[in-house]
């Protein structure tokens, strides 16, 4: 749930207190543990669609870690309004499109099908509406002739790894001005 970004070293004002996932097999858990960062996995599957029960366990684990900010990355679960409201103004997400375009899934395929000339990624504050919070930063990636969803996704991912730490640094310093990377 909270993702360790490898470039968070040196004078970056944020430090990971917990790396979590709803997938116990997520690769980021092993990476974080190897770096000495506490990890947690709250597998959503045993809850069989009972989102409030899943979120109650998630909330308890987060409260134990007491993060100032939650950074979602690849967390593919829709959170309820009640959960989001508890962390309002302190939860960020990265999304693989230039929001407000292509909210939800299959963003790269949808951008290609629409004939877009550029794609990218966005970091935004999380609100109860899916991929709809205020945008804190974006990085633009040109769509190249012959691109597939996979080739485009690979190039966007490189920009995600640049954008998220930069936006997080600005956010924890109180700067909410949207950042534009190219």
UniProtKB/TrEMBL annotation:
Q: Name one GO biological process term.
A: 'de novo' IMP biosynthetic process
Which family would the database say this protein is a member of? Belongs to the GART family.
Alphabetized, the UniProt keywords read: Purine biosynthesis, Transferase
Database matches in Pfam families: Formyl_trans_N
Taxonomic path = Bacteria, Pseudomonadati, Pseudomonadota, Alphaproteobacteria, Rhodobacterales
Q: Return the GO cellular component terms, semicolon-separated.
A: cytosol
Q: Where is the Formyl transferase N-terminal domain?
A: 10-168
Keyword Transferase attached? yes
Task: List the residue(s) that the UniProt entry marks as the site Raises pKa of active site His.
Answer: 131
Q: Please indicate which superkingdom the organism of origin belongs to.
A: Bacteria
Q: In the Enzyme Commission scheme, what number(s) does this protein have?
A: 2.1.2.2
Q: Report residues binding (6R)-10-formyltetrahydrofolate.
A: 51, 93
UniProt xrefs under NCBIfam families? PurN
Q: What does this protein do?
A: Catalyzes the transfer of a formyl group from 10-formyltetrahydrofolate to 5-phospho-ribosyl-glycinamide (GAR), producing 5-phospho-ribosyl-N-formylglycinamide (FGAR) and tetrahydrofolate.
Q: Carries keyword ATP-binding?
A: no
The name under which this protein is listed is Phosphoribosylglycinamide formyltransferase
Instruction: Give the active-site positions.
Output: 95 (proton donor)
Q: Spell out the PANTHER family in the cross-references.
A: PHOSPHORIBOSYLGLYCINAMIDE FORMYLTRANSFERASE
